[in-house]
Amino acid sequence: MHIIVLGGAGAMGRVTVRTLTEYEDVDQITIADYDEERAHDVAATLNSSKILVRQIDVYDSERLSKLVRGANVVLSAVEYVFNQPILRVCIQEKVHYADLGGLFHMTRKLMDMSPEAEAAGITAILGMGGTPGITNILARAAVDKLDRVDSIKVQLGCSDDTPSTAPLVAPYSIRTILDEFTRPPQVFQNDTWYPQQPLTGQEELIFPLPVGRATAIFSLHSECASFPVSFRDKGIRHVSFKIAFPSDFMKKLKFLVDIGFGSDELISVRGVKVSPREVLARLLEMTPVEDVEPQDCDVLRVVVAGEAQGQRLEIVNQVVVLPYRRWGIGAGALDTGTPLAIAGRMLANEEITRRGAFGPELCIPVEPFFQELARYDMHVTETRTTAIS
Fold first, then answer.
1. Got the DSSP string for 5-43?
2. What is the CATH number of domain 134-331+379-386?
3. Dist CA 222 CA 8 (whole Å)
4. Coil, strand or helix: which one is 251?
5. With bands split at pLDDT 50, 70 and 90, how would you rate the model's confidence at 173?
6. By the 8 A CB rule, do 102 and 129 touch?
7. Which member of 28, 51, 375, 378 lies 3.0 to 4.6 Å from 2 by CB, making a disulfide possible if both were Cys?
């Protein structure tokens, strides 16, 4: 089977590639990246005969079509803004597709392409990283145990004690984080999505250590787009997403956003038009990579409330993700890059048979997926609480 990883030289994509190299039945992996030199560096590091490297600009639909033609699966680890043209090409070439999420609005656009994907005989999995991704399957596992679902609250708690001299270290794409900080989060309530003010909804949550007590806020996320559609037959009335970044990171990023670095509106600097957001992103890209052992942690959690056999029931499913010492990578990279690879292999070997474009909760087999997570020290725990009448 042949799997192509777009953005395979990036921080998350390279983890996807590395995971794929460990599957014996995946015999060809193409790292397709705009930065060909970096892609070759990743390939050299992994030293696998399965890997090919190709330079690609995903906006060049003709070259992209030639690249993906004949492959089994395309996995997109590029910025979410490129997802729609990539899926169009995959539909055209009849190649299965999965991405890391579309920050709500892009996910909804791709969900609208489901009839085209189904007609082409392909599956497009929308949001298959940590969150969205693992959280979607955690929700599926809980929903399947309930007769009726009232609410799903997705919660992400992050900590990072990695020693660093850098003034700001982004846990993932700074462009995506800036969108999460500046665009109105969407909360689903009683058949309607309601936009919230950015950085609102502050709530003190208690996560397992080392995250511990943390302040979470609403954030724009794809689970809020797909869950109301996927679980409407269970009567779902509320879906929300909250994230708790490390407090130091929150303060620094809020300051940068407040003074304008979250904006992509061009401004003139000495006669040159520049985007404040792109300036910040470029400055962070120029920060030297430090050779230190990661000490971060992600807690991925869903709180699902509903009814089973006439009783009120709350199910909390969560995964505590720590750095993966075998590969020397952090928790955030592990829980984002690995699920995409797991889903890619499932698509390639036809474990997934449903066709169309939708969230992973509609097509990923729950127990086999959890078993694959456990191979990488990501273990699911469940807590049930029954209401006393």
1. EETTTSTTHHHHHHHHHT-TT--EEEEEES-HHHHHHHH
2. 3.30.360.10
3. 22
4. helix
5. confident
6. no
7. 28
* Structure-block tokens of residue 187: 């909360």
For 81-118, write each residue's pLDDT tens digit. 999 999 999 999 999 999 999 999 999 999 999 999 99
Higher-pLDDT residue of 181 and 214 is 214
Res 388: pLDDT? 58
Q: Which residues contact 359 (CB under 8 A, 6 or more apart)?
A: 107, 111, 125, 126, 127, 132, 136, 222, 223, 225, 226, 227, 229, 230
Residue 70, classed as helix, strand or coil, is coil
Residue with the bigger pLDDT between 22 and 292: it is 22
Q: Which of 332, 305, 308, 329 is nearest to 319 (CA)?
A: 332
Average pLDDT of the chain, as a whole number: 96
Q: Is 350 exposed, middle or buried (0-12, 13-18, 19+ CB in 10 A)?
A: exposed
* pLDDT, position 107: 98
| Cα 143 from Cα 108, distance rounded (Å) | 21
When the candidates are 3.40.50.720, 3.20.20.140, 3.40.50.620, 3.40.1400.10, the CATH number that belongs to 2-130+334-374 is 3.40.50.720
Mean pLDDT check: name the lowest of 124-133, 285-294, 300-309.
285-294
Total-model pTM: 0.95
Residue 164 — pLDDT band, cuts 50, 70, 90? confident
**Intra-chain end-to-end CA distance of the chain, in Å:** 54
Pairing of strands 148-160, 186-189: unpaired
